[in-house]
Amino acid sequence: MLRIHVTGEDLARIRLADRPDPMWETVLSSLRFRDRRGPASYGRWRGQVRGRLRALPHTLRALIPLGGYFPDFLTPVTAGPDWEERVDRLRSTPRRQLRAEMLTLDAESAVALPGWVRELADGERETLDKVAGDLDRYYRSAIAPPGIWSAVQTQVDADRALRIRHLTSGGIEGLLHGLRPVLRWESPVLEADYPVPRELRLEGRGLLLIPSFFCWRHPVTFYDDGPNPVLVYPIQHTATILPGSAALGRLIGATRARVLRCVGHGATTGDLARRAGISAASASEHAGVLREAGLVMSVRRGNEVLHTLTPLGTEVLPTHALGADQW
């Protein structure tokens, strides 16, 4: 069980990440690459990646074991989304941090670690560069291809739209309550199922919530929470819709274009009907065609269906250009 103790000051400093984090997605995807979890969510992705990679690099297999602890230095905190900046930050991990985290990995590991881990613990720059290079190559094969990253963005954006809706209608309390069933808010404690017992006291530092495509079943946080506590949580997966030429051809028409514009940063079917000046049944039909075309993502929560634009939908909207490469 993970128990996060939240003060009044922390409530004012809870934030929601504005995009998927490429480093967290890369590290967590390396677990999904090896396990058999979520075949409906990750099966097609695994097949494509295995067509490019026969196996995960040995450095990543050792540092990111299936289940349990993996070092914090693999997911450095940075100010921006730039992948190269994050890799550079990883390459400059302080020796003191490397030693502490390699000792923890050794203590937590169920198998003997390879000899190069000791070199990493000693701060050998060549070994650290090797780890960074392997992580970078894996990222470029498994995460960076436009079709894959676009699908990750689509699903994470849909989750963010839902969280923002909870925030605008119910404030921070609404946001936290809306994270069920993965996270359970019983003021002043946010709880979640977790592999090991963990008490995290924020003590005024706030909390960054990061929705993740490759996170599975329970959230993840840093072993050493430091000055910037982070909680990565799994999003609700929906089927990835691939664009088809027949569906795209049916998009032509002023009403459907208006519905697409009305989706904006997120809208329920009722919102679309009201904004576009059409019936709820007509709004639902238009949203369905847009979804089939890969321009809209729809997530059902309770009695509502929330629609958000996909990256392709965002591109099509201002120019009406059609076509995309998805996975």
What's this model, at a glance?
49% of the residues lie in helices and 14% in strands. With 327 residues, the protein is of the alpha/beta class. A four-stranded mixed β-sheet has the order 3-4-1-5. The chain has a four-stranded mixed β-sheet with strand order 2-6-8-7.
Q: Layout of SSEs?
A:
Layout: E1 2-5, H1 8-11, E2 14-16, H2 22-34, H3 39-52, H4 58-63, H5 83-91, H6 95-108, H7 116-121, H8 125-142, H9 146-177, E3 184-186, E4 189-192, E5 198-201, E6 207-212, E7 220-221, E8 230-234, H10 245-249, H11 254-263, E9 267-268, H12 269-276, H13 280-292, E10 296-301, E11 304-309, H14 311-319
Parallel strand pairs: 1-5, 2-6, 6-8
Antiparallel strand pairs: 1-4, 3-4, 7-8, 9-11, 10-11
Helix pairs in contact: 2-8, 5-8, 11-12, 11-13, 12-13
Walk me through the structure.
- The chain has 327 residues and is of the alpha/beta class.
- The protein is built from 14 helices and 11 strands.
- The protein starts with a strand and ends in an 8-residue tail after the last helix.
